[in-house]
Amino acid sequence: MGTLKLVSIWEKYSIIYWNGLNMTLQIAAVSVITSIIVGIILGVLRMSKNSVIKGIIKLYISFIRGTPMLIQIYIIYYSLSFNMTQFQASVVAMTVNASAYIAETVRGGIESIDKGQMEACRSLGMTYWQGLMEIVIPQAIKSILPSLCNQFVILIKNTSMMSVIGMHELMYNANTVRSNTYLAFEPLIIAAVMYFVICTLLEKGVNYLERRLRYSA
To answer: CA 33 to CA 153: how far, in whole Å?
Structure first.
């Protein structure tokens, strides 16, 4: 009986689910690009020799990592909703949250590079920032690339929280189907399966990338 309900819901509301998934992927795709860019900048600044800059970035990262994402979404949305669309506010919220985690990943990747690399750069007449941007960071990116790809999987799942600000992503649309059908369970099962399939495919892609990087190392 439950299977028949799932099939019936899918036949009637599949377009709503597909539209929600499309919006989910759009938010995640834009957010992963912006969060990687911001995260790399924050990660580099986190290693700054300027104690003030380093302290501010460290405080920012600690605050974001130490507070619930839901609170961050509400703060960003209600403070920026007059100037931004729901999509833009969603991207900003996702970027603010994910960039803090990426920054720590980037910092760890940079610190894993042999310090002799930077010493060699300086001996060739390169400045600290030239050596960092042209030699150290490209090597660090290769080692942390799988982690950055995993962030895309996390972002896709985190988009479900954007339903609280009325963003018509997959979770929001699943709740719409629940309201239309008066069914609490079945519409969520369909959404869960869609999340699972997308995230599983991405995880397989990340695993393939890890193997390629390991063989090319």
So the answer is: 13
